[in-house]
Every structure is written in C-alpha cells, then in structure tokens.
Amino acid sequence: MGEPGLKMTYQEMVGKYVRKTNRQQWNEGAMENAIRAVHTGEMGWLKASKTFNRLFGITCNELRSLVYDWAEINQIPHRFNKTDKRAGWDWVRGFRSRHPEITFRKPENTSIARAMAFNKSNIAQFFKTHQEIVDKYKLGPEKIYNVDESGISTVQNPPKIFASTGKKQVGTIVGAERGIHVTVVCCTNPLGSYIPPAFIFPRKNWKVELLEGTPTGSVGFQQESCWMAGEIFQQWIKHFKKYSNPSKDSPSHNSWGVLDYEKQHGIILLCLPAHCSHRVQPLDVSFFSPLKTYLNQEITKKIRGNDGRAISQLQVAGIFRPAYEKAATMLPVALIIVVYGR
C-alpha cells in the first residue's frame, strides 16, 4: 500500500464526505429487522427480500466465494476447492435446483441517480400530489393522460434464428449498420383512448410525405436534435388539446411562462419524479417495449420484401402504423394500476 508517510499525507489531503440524507442506506440493523420480521411471521422471506432490496445482485463467482467463506467461518465440513476458495459448480447446480424461484439473469443497467431517486418518499409524494389534483378537480379516468417519448430506429434488432451447428458467425439482413433515429411521442388515458402520435424527424426541411401511412390524426415536426424541445412541446400541447377536450373550469395551478397556454385551456401538467420513469412511467414500462418488438417484426418483413434495400425516412410512418395498432391494445390495465396506485 506504499510507505506510511505517503499514506498519511493522502488521508490529510482528502476531504471528509458527510451524507446529507439517509436515503438508500443499508445497515446491520435493517437486516436484523428483516430477519426478525420473517421469524415472527410478519412477512415471508420473499416479501422481506423485496422490501429490503437495494439493487445489488451477486454474480455466480461471488456466490461461490461467499458459500466457501460461510462454510469456513462456521466450520462446516466441505469438499470445496481450497486453492480457489470457492464452492464448486456442482454445488451451484444443486443450489439452483433446490431454489427454482431464484433465476440467473443479466441485469439491466441502473444508474446511481436512478437508484437514489427511486425511493419510497419520492413516489409517495408523487401519488399524494396526484390524488390531491384528482380530488380537487374531480377528474375521471377519461381526463387523465400519460405522455412519453421514445426513439425508434430503422435498423432492427435481429431475433435468434436457426442455423447449422459448427458455424462461428450467422448473419441476417438489416437495413443498414446505422439507421435513422426518429422520436415518437405517444399519449393515452386509462380507458385506452389514444391521442394520435407525434413524430420528430432529424432534418431541417419538412416533407408532407413523411406522414403518409401514419395513424389518423398524427402530427410531425422536424429539428436537428430529434428530441422534444420547448418549442415543439408547445406545439404538441396544442395537438393534445385538439383531441383531449380539456375543461376550462379546471385551470392549472402552475404559472410559469411556458405553461401559459395550458393555464388558458385547463390543462394540468404533473411530472413524474426525476430519474423514476423506468419504474413508474406507464408508457415506458408497459407500452414501448412491445411496440419496438412489433416494429422490429415490421422492419424485418419490409426489408425482406424490399430486396434488402435500406429504409428511408419516408417509409418510417407506414412501418410504424401496424406495430402501433398492435401495441395499443395492450396498455390500459397496466396504466390503470399505475395511475391509481392499486
């Protein structure tokens, strides 16, 4: 670790970090409470594991090392490899067969910001505010909409295919190595009523042909960044008002300059907590995944019937429509659960 003098100098130079909150902290006391809750019958082990989960899974090698250390500390006779200090693969297979409820999966990347933001207090405050607005303005499910944007690409993710054994590489035809990125904005309510989608194309000049074949009432915008900026969002709000028929008797409680239009037309905007959309955004959780699956299928069919030629921006809308219509029938129940917190 270096000379003692250097180590002391390093410690003096580094400032001491002091936590400002106790969010997402774990300690032995919390674990003891979880174990006690299971022993007293207050909750089962599965509920306790979910309640005290902190997004820190372990790999197979880490599990093998932990088992070896546990056996050594508790003086349990074993035949594990003392050189590697790990349990064997036979033990791992036996462990998985004894516990079929535990799966070996590839985890999704969860940033520190998302892990910190998604906590009980933030979510509880959101639903409290949501309920206050619903009660104050007497809003029914037909008046509550959820909106989100997502990027779609003209290059599909090829599914698994059958091939001869022994081949090191198996290829399939895709439109291009790098496709066109288009942003789609979707909006729906718990009853399954959809606002026609909006498309944002990464280009400077607009062409009417870009919307040929889109769902009826769709609207399109163009800008270089391809993501919804302030000006395009205001244009989309006007598009939303046209199809949602908001009540002027229920004005928004916000007074920011960007929201003047919403105030004048009785549109209330409630934002989800920051960095929490991956868990509580209904469209993100339940809609965009099947939409992109169906879109991949449509792109694959288009390329195979198009002599392998790349898909252009003018063809995106026609490919999107059948995928959108399939996915639009799957959301309402999931959205009701999230909107009403049931």
Describe this structure in words.
The structure is a single chain. The protein has helices at residues 4-13, 28-39, 45-51, 60-73, 89-98, 112-117, 120-137, 230-244, 260-264, 277-280, 282-304, 313-327, 332-340, and strands at 146-153, 181-188, 194-201, 219-222. The termini are far apart. Helix 2 packs antiparallel against helix 3 (45-51) and helix 11 (282-304) crosses helix 12. Helix content is 43%, strand content 8%. Mean pLDDT is 73; it is low at 1-15 and 249-258. The protein is flat, with a radius of gyration of 27 Å. Strands 1-2-3-4 form a four-stranded mixed β-sheet, sandwiched between helices. It has 342 residues and is of the alpha+beta class. The protein has a domain at 119-159 and 173-340: Nucleotidyltransferase, domain 5 (2-Layer Sandwich), CATH 3.30.420. It contains 13 helices and four strands.
Write a concise synopsis of the structure shown:
Residues 182-303 form the DDE-1 domain. By secondary structure, the protein is α+β, with helices and mostly antiparallel strands.
Name of the CATH architecture of the domain at 119-159 and 173-340: 2-Layer Sandwich
| Class from secondary-structure proportions | alpha+beta
Radius of gyration: 27 Å
CATH class of the domain at 119-159 and 173-340: Alpha Beta
CATH-assigned fold name of the domain at 119-159 and 173-340: Nucleotidyltransferase, domain 5
**Continuous helix count:** 13
Count of distinct strands: 4
The low-confidence runs, each spanning 5 or more residues with pLDDT under 50, are 1-15, 249-258
Largest sheet: spatial strand order: 1-2-3-4
Along the chain, the helix and strand elements come as HHHHHHHEEEEHHHHHH
Q: Write down the overall mean pLDDT.
A: 73
Helix content: 40-55%
The proportion of strand residues reads 5-15%
Distance between the termini: 54 Å
Largest sheet report? 4 strands, mixed
**Net shape:** flat
